[in-house]
Amino acid sequence: MKEPEESSTKHVAERLKWLKEYYDLSTKELASSVGASYTQMANWENGTQRLSLKGALAINDTYGTSLDFLFIGRVEALPQKIAKAWTSRPRESSSNKSSDSPVE
């Protein structure tokens, strides 16, 4: 079974980087706050390793995100303030349609 595009390691990494920027954290600070090593967090952010379920749950508990957001880009389960910030973020290219925007 083929992995959906929005759940690719690259897209998960993009959401992690955005979350780090949203909370104005360094990689080291984000890693420390969720009990991960700097190397592990850097690997997740760079897409060289897939975000673990344990890591995602720690991020959810600490920052109020959702597994659906982290793994598949679904914003509906996010708190309204975070969802609004995500949907209004600058994007690299307007021609790239993504499921990371809310369903109307």
UniProtKB/TrEMBL annotation:
Keywords: DNA-binding. The lineage of its organism: Bacteria, Pseudomonadati, Pseudomonadota, Alphaproteobacteria, Hyphomicrobiales. The keyword DNA-binding applies. InterPro entries: Cro/C1-type_HTH (IPR001387), Lambda_DNA-bd_dom_sf (IPR010982). It comes from Pseudovibrio ascidiaceicola. Residues 85-104 are annotated as: Disordered. Coiled coil: none annotated. This is DNA-binding transcriptional regulator, XRE-family HTH domain. Signal peptide: none annotated. Residues 95-104 have a biased composition (Low complexity). Residues 28-70 form the HTH cro/C1-type domain. It comes from the Bacteria. GO terms for molecular function: DNA binding.
